[in-house]
């Protein structure tokens, strides 16, 4: 783990949320699994409010339930009890196709293992959410180029993921998450498969995305990580999860 | 997702596991090929038989006879409308020229002609040979019995010409130490039993043969005298050629034009009954039967019904055709079932390939769902992959099936030629079979893709994303 460089950390942390609207609100959110006769309480009554434009880090040990919480925010998983509102809409009340639209339009997801489709080029990978969102073909080219330019990979559009470094692949994944201009970015251990230097580069990028630019509203970022120093450097708020519950909340 | 994007992604996915998907598609192609091959054979054979039957004149003819004529054993009376109503038919007139004209006016009737058939002694030089002589209408020229005959068909409706059956020609030629072909152009004399009107009582001079009878004369009866007529041999038809219409032109030793036969005043089988009937004193000649030729076999039932309404007995071979169609329908069905078996096996290949594909692409399915793909998108993607395999398999299968057909046709042609049988086209691939086979292939593939597609759509994205 990288030692905390306070000076550098202070320099990179943004000034905090610019808007006061609520991006995500969870009330008594729970997700229990049944494994044989045992009940796994992955998320066990979490209440949390994330403001628009906030950069929130979810910390915790493996199996603490932080990734499950992220899946619940993404609408990939269903809550056993409690509610979760994203931009004022309750996910539990949405049907399957509304949830798909939510994942396509409202949020962007970044994973630890990048999850790029290996047989597609960088361009095609980034274009995928636009295809799923039925964006007209004429608009797609420009949108993909814009997203790739934002992550500094415009020149690698024709490459396949296998031809890129880990950091570059994660940048492509971020471009893919941003291409539909979502208001919330959910990142599940985005630096987990990267060396510390590359990890910092990626978080610099995420942090930049979190900052409002050119009059556009800031993108809310919820990042799951177990690397506390990085979280302290980049996030506005740290929420530590233990045994499916909020164990600690720290403001930066 | 839009259809174009779906197809593009499906095609890309198929290219990914090229060998496996090609083998699966090949399986479908073989299935479709066997289906196309089987059905083409069925259709081809049906066409062949249909063509033969149509040209034989068997199924577009209705034989008309006086009421009750078919009431013999084994032939149930077919009087009155077919629907079994008990309405008594109108009393029928004897079959004469006026009835013939009346029958000709029924819609869809092409021609109506009597059938003359009599025994005659054909003489070439001094030797004679007894033969069955039958009359032929000029329309018989299109009958395939005259295909490949030596010489030609009658040159005119009233030409004094005769066509011989090869057997008979051979017998006749032997008497003069000639070959049958040598008879062409030669004149032979037919001696037959002719009718001669009886002179009125007291008048001893008989009217010359061929003179029209007055009703009174006919009422008095006639005498049977030996008559002769010279005819030129213009054609010889093979022994195998055997046409038997619905009482039309059955096999005979020699054939003469209808108009000539009519003018010969030959004694006919019905003469004896006509002479003792009360109504004998009518103007024109009576026919033992009339053959009604109909424009197409499908019009036969209505023409039959119309004639029955007039009070005559009718007979046609249409029921036989109906049975034949049934036989072919069953044959086609059986061939289709056997052909489809291979396609059914191939469809299992699709299920297998797509199920394997789901296992391999679990993570990808999870990613797609995380990026906003709905269950429907995933289902459609797998459906599209199955459909694309079905389309390619179908197109390739039709090509292979067609090729198999050409080969079978080629081999059959060689075999038939070796057996001295004229080559026949037993292979027909109609456009509807091509379109149907490709459509069926896509349909079968889609049905086979249903289970894998719904399984893929139901995958839990959280589980799928965890997959290695």
What are the defining features of this structure?
heterodimer; A: 252 residues; alpha/beta; Rossmann fold; 6-stranded mixed β-sheet; 4-stranded antiparallel β-sheet; 8 helices; 35% helix; 27% strand; B: 468 residues; alpha+beta; 3 domains; 6-stranded mixed β-barrel; 13 helices; 49% helix; elongated
Explained architecture:
The complex is a heterodimer of chains A (252) and B (468). With 252 residues, chain A is an alpha/beta fold. Chain A has one domain (6-251): Rossmann fold (3-Layer(aba) Sandwich). Helix content of chain A is 35%, strand content 27%. In chain A, helix 4 packs across helix 5, helix 4 runs parallel beside helix 6 and helix 5 (137-150) crosses helix 6 (166-178). The relative contact order of chain A is 0.21. By secondary structure, chain B is an alpha+beta fold. Chain B has 3 domains: 3-54 and 324-466, no CATH class; 60-95 and 292-316, no CATH class; 116-288, no CATH class. Chain B is built from 13 helices and 11 strands. A 6-stranded mixed beta barrel of chain B has the order 3-4-9-6-8-7. In chain B, strands 2-10-1-11 form a 4-stranded antiparallel sheet, covered by helices on one side. In chain B, helix 2 crosses helix 11 and helix 9 runs parallel beside helix 12. The interface between A and B is medium-sized, with 26 and 23 residues.
Number of H/I helices of chain A: 8
How much strand of chain B? 15-25%
CATH architecture classification name of chain A? 3-Layer(aba) Sandwich
Query: What is the fold-level CATH name, i.e. the topology of chain A?
Result: Rossmann fold
- Inertia-based shape of chain A: globular
Order of helices and strands of chain B: HHEHEEEEEHEHEEHHEHEHHHHH
The oligomeric status of these chains comes to: heterodimer
Count all strands of chain B and give the number: 11
Largest sheet of chain B: 6 strands, mixed, barrel
User: How many strands appear in the DSSP assignment of chain A?
Assistant: 10
Largest interface: A-B, 26 and 23 residues
